[in-house]
Amino acid sequence: MRIALAGKGGSGKTTISATMARMFARRGYTTNALDDDPNPNLASALGLTSDMIERLKRVPREDILEERVDDEGHASLHMIRPFDQVITDYGVIGPDGVQTLTMTGLIGAGKG
Ligand SMILES: Nc1ncnc2c1ncn2[C@@H]1O[C@H](COP(=O)(O)OP(=O)(O)OP(=O)(O)O)[C@@H](O)[C@H]1O
Ligand SMILES: [Mg+2]
Questions:
Q1: CA separation for the pair 33, 64 (Å, rounded)
Q2: Distance in Å, CA 13 to ligand 2 centroid
Q3: Could you read off the pLDDT tens digit of each residue along the chain, which spans 112 residues?
Q4: Rounded to an integer, what distance in angstroms lies between the CA atom of residue 93 and that of residue 74?
Q5: Sequence-separated (6 or more) residues with CB below 8 Å from residue 76
Q6: Are 35 and 42 in contact (CB under 8 A)?
Q7: Which ranges of the chain does DSSP label H, i.e. alpha helix?
Q8: Is residue 91 within 8 Å of 81, Cβ to Cβ?
Q9: What is the distance between the alpha carbons of residues 8 and 57, in angstroms, rounded to a whole number?
Q10: Could you tell me how far CA 1 lies from the centroid of its own chain?
């Protein structure tokens, strides 16, 4: 099951996401929590320590996704690495075993 939360600023998206992630993990479900906010703070809401948060690395799209175009010209995105490997390389396992990833944050300095 995949759940995505979006909506009005300050309405409680991060708090509810983190609480649900920990509840599912405690009940024995494999749980991945993915922060896609440009100002990411899901990790701290999940209760990760500052050391764990520092280990989180933004996942570069080109490292995990590939665009494929079918015979009719329709493009779609596909994972090119096993998800477990993405968690190992970029993520952190937080309290209750929640596997945490962040999709935003600076990769490096650049123009614009
Ligand atoms: N059910 C609730 N009752 C009271 N306060 C809450 C509740 N849920 C969240 N809050 C508080 O509301 C504030 C905003 O919550 P949160 O950061 O989860 O919202 P958000 O939608 O993720 O915000 P943003 O749009 O900035 O990412 C926080 O201070 C949080 O502690
Ligand atoms: Mg938020």
A1: 17
A2: 5
A3: 999 999 999 999 999 999 999 999 999 999 999 999 888 899 999 999 999 999 998 888 888 999 999 999 999 999 999 988 999 999 999 999 999 999 887 667 877 6
A4: 36
A5: 67, 68, 70
A6: yes
A7: 13-26, 42-46, 50-55, 61-64, 83-90
A8: no
A9: 26
A10: 15
Task: Tell how far the Cα of 33 is from the centroid of ligand 2, in angstroms.
Answer: 13
Q: What is the pLDDT of residues 10-37, one digit of tens each?
A: 999 999 999 999 999 999 999 999 999 8
Which pair of tokens denotes residue 27? 């009940």
The CA–CA distances, whole Å, from 71 to 34, 68, 75, 76 equal 32, 10, 10, 12
Ligand 1 environment, Cβ below 6 A: 9-15, 37
Instruction: Tell me if 31 sits within 8 A of 83, measured CB to CB.
Output: no
